[in-house]
Amino acid sequence: MNQRTITVSFSHVEAAKILIPSLEALLVRVHELVQDVADEPPYARWVRDTAYELLAALRQQLSAVRWGEELLRIELDPDRVGLLAAALGGLRRRMGTTDREGTASALTVTRQRLWLTIPFEFPVTWWLSHDVVRGELLPLLRASYTRAEDASERAHAERILRSTERVLGLSDSEALHLETPLADLAWLATSVERTPSARRLHSLLEHLLDPLVQERYRTYRAGQRERATDQSQARSTPPSGGGPASHSRSRGETDATSRPSPATAAPGQPGPVLRRIAAGLLDGIVFWVFSLFLTYSMSVLFVGESPGLVVLPPGVYDALSSLIGFALGIGVPYAYWVYPVGRWGATLGKRAFGLQVVDRRGAPPGQAKALGRAMLLALLGWLALLPWWPVLFRTDRRGLHDQAADVWVIHEWRTN
């Protein structure tokens, strides 16, 4: 066995009554959703391939090991663990509290054998739709990373955030194939319970993650906190005679108060200055070309008294010219510089260079903040690029327009 496989023992009854039926039920549901094999999505293909391999392993063990002599030993990798989690989660929901011919009690024993054997550091494969990743998972992780007062919680958020961003940068499919240590998943499920805006993510994790895992994790975290408290009390207890210990403690208190509050830290890695400059130049070029094209198109399509594609009376032409001028002066800049920043956190230039504008929660800032940020930049930008100067000297790379709107420009994690 290596670090990516683990052997779990099950009885013949558990394999025949729980594992095989639950896997077959999952296969049936997937096959019902996929009408044409040519259009089979990656998630369905993963379920089919992994389920058939696991079913073959279970049936081989059933035929090789005599009934009642010893337990079946099934080797599991992250894909098989993730598939079993989905299959058993579906069966758990269907069963509820009903004991049908002892199936509920057999299910309980099966769950215990699996989830009390898998170590917390073992990775589990799971799938998440692209829009849930963008709309719920990433904002939650960035907010948790920013506000975490506990080093272990910050580490949980950072690990999931890095791996998710890496997969997001390499995949363009509708669902992302994620691989996360069991402890990180348990932490995420606990965090999602406190986040009403992440309803779809909460529903998926509630289905995927067995309550036994969350109970194990709560016990594990309580033990960690108790040990940390004991160590802290031991360090803070001054020896007889005082002196150095008192000085050390006061210095530690000073260091603690001098550290920035997590609430004011950037909700991600600050965007590098050169990337921001390059993104700004690209945005300027794209916007200039688009505006030039729009102006030229209007002058060709609609003319006054000269022959052209569409000849308009002078009064109508003047009114249309005013409308087009307003669109070019207000509507087009808003559609390019403000709306995509408020909606998705990035213009074309920022997206091309892996930058994103986010609020304290790590989510896109919304239209009001995006508009205020753009207006301040437009009003003061002609003064020797005044809003940009703090970007060069601040560690969080925030300009005056970023600070006024209470937003950050971060570099999305892609690959290490």
Summary, kept brief:
By secondary structure, the protein is mainly α.
Write a structural description.
With 416 residues, the chain is mainly alpha-helical. The chain folds into 3 domains: 110 residues, no CATH class; 94 residues, no CATH class; 139 residues, no CATH class. Helix content is 64%, strand content 9%. It has 16 helices and 8 strands. A two-stranded antiparallel ribbon has the order 1-2. A two-stranded antiparallel sheet has the order 3-4. 28% of the residues are buried.
List the helices and strands and how they pair.
Layout: E1 6-10, H1 12-33, H2 42-64, E2 72-76, H3 78-95, H4 103-115, E3 123-129, H5 130-147, H6 151-170, E4 175-181, H7 182-193, H8 199-208, H9 211-236, H10 244-258, H11 273-301, E5 302-303, E6 310-311, H12 314-344, H13 348-352, E7 355-358, H14 367-380, H15 389-393, H16 400-405, E8 408-411
Parallel strand pairs: 5-6
Antiparallel strand pairs: 1-2, 3-4, 7-8
Helix pairs in contact: 1-2, 1-3, 1-4, 3-4, 5-6, 6-7, 7-8, 11-12, 12-14
